[in-house]
C-alpha cells in the first residue's frame, strides 16, 4: 500500500439497479439468484467499509421473500421505500420541460409553476364530458398498475409517445407556431395505446414468468371479472383460480376491487381488452371512466 500503510481508509459502495430486468426470460433462475443476492447482502453487513445498495421493486421484493426468508427483520430494518406521489410526478415532468430553455421561452413558460406549465401544454380533458376527468387525473389513472404504482417511467414514456403522435399529426396538418395546447387529445390517446403495447411486452410479460399463459387468456376480453368468470376463463377450480389470481395481483396485472378483479388501463390496449364486466357467463359493457 502507498506510504507503507497496511490498509486504506476507503469505503466502497456497490449499487444494484434494474434487478427486475436482470433475469428477463429466465424465470426459473430469477428468484433463486435474487434470494442469494439478499443473503450476500446480509453476509456483508459485518464489513463496515463495503456497502451494498439494492434497488428492488415492491412486487419483486414480495416474490423474493414469499414463503419466508431467514433474518428478514434485518433487511426490513434497513429498507427504505421510494414512492412517487402525484405532486412528485408533476414536478418531474415540469423539470424535464424547463431543461429546454428555448422551448420555454417561445411558449412563455419560464415563470410558470408546475401546474401552470402542465395546463399550458395539455388540453383540459382527453375525453370530453361532464363526468370525464381532467387530463392530469386521466394520465394518473392510466399509468398506474394493479398495485396503484405510478411509475415515473410510465409518465415520461406516455409524454414522449404522445409527442411522437402529435408530430406525425403536424406533418399531415400543420398548426401555427405557438398553438395551445401543444398536445391534442388524440395524440394522448395514441400515446397511451403505444405505451400499453410497450408495457405489456417489456414489463408485464418479462416479469410474469409462468403466469404468461394465464395472462394471454385475458386477451381480447373484458376488463372486469369475478371469481366465477376467471374460473371459466382459465379452466380452473375456485381454489386453483385463487392461487392464480394472487400471482396476477402481485405483478399488478389484476387489481382487487371488493369481490371483483380488474385489469388496469395500462395493460388494456396492449392486450386488446375492452372496458366492461365479464361476470360469470354475462358480459356487460360500461362507459364509466376509470
TrEMBL record:
InterPro entries: Sll1717-like
Organism: Acetobacter cerevisiae
Protein's recorded name: Uncharacterized protein
Origin: domain of life: Bacteria
Amino acid at each position: 500500500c502507498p506510504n507503507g500503510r497496511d490498509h486504506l481508509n476507503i469505503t466502497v459502495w456497490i449499487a444494484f439497479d434494474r434487478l427486475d430486468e436482470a433475469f428477463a426470460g429466465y424465470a426459473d433462475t430469477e428468484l433463486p439468484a435474487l434470494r442469494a443476492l439478499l443473503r450476500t447482502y446480509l453476509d456483508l453487513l459485518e464489513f463496515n467499509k463495503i456497502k451494498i445498495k439494492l434497488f428492488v421493486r415492491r412486487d419483486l421484493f414480495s416474490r423474493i421473500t414469499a414463503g419466508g426468508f431467514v433474518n428478514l427483520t434485518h433487511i426490513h430494518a434497513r429498507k427504505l421505500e421510494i414512492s412517487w406521489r402525484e405532486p412528485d410526478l408533476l414536478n418531474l415532468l415540469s423539470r424535464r420541460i424547463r431543461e429546454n430553455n428555448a422551448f420555454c421561452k417561445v411558449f412563455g413558460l419560464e415563470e410558470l409553476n408546475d401546474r401552470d406549465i402542465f395546463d399550458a401544454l395539455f388540453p383540459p380533458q382527453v375525453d370530453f364530458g361532464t363526468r370525464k376527468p381532467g387530463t392530469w387525473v386521466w394520465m394518473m389513472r392510466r399509468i398506474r398498475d394493479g398495485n396503484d404504482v405510478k411509475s415515473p417511467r410510465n409518465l415520461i414514456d406516455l409524454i414522449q409517445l404522445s409527442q411522437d403522435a402529435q408530430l406525425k399529426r403536424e406533418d399531415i396538418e400543420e398548426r401555427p407556431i405557438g398553438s395551445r395546447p401543444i398536445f391534442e387529445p388524440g395524440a394522448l390517446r395514441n400515446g397511451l395505446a403505444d405505451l400499453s403495447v410497450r408495457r405489456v411486452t417489456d414489463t408485464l410479460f418479462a416479469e410474469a414468468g409462468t403466469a404468461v399463459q394465464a395472462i394471454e387468456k385475458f386477451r381480447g376480453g373484458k376488463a372486469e371479472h369475478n371469481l366465477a368468470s376467471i374460473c371459466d376463463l382459465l379452466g380452473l377450480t375456485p381454489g386453483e383460480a385463487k392461487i392464480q389470481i394472487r400471482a396476477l395481483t402481485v405483478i399488478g396485472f389484476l387489481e382487487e376491487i371488493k369481490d371483483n378483479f380488474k385489469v388496469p388501463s395500462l395493460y388494456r390496449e396492449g392486450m386488446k381488452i375492452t372496458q366492461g364486466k365479464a361476470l360469470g357467463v354475462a358480459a356487460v359493457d360500461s362507459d364509466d371512466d376509470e
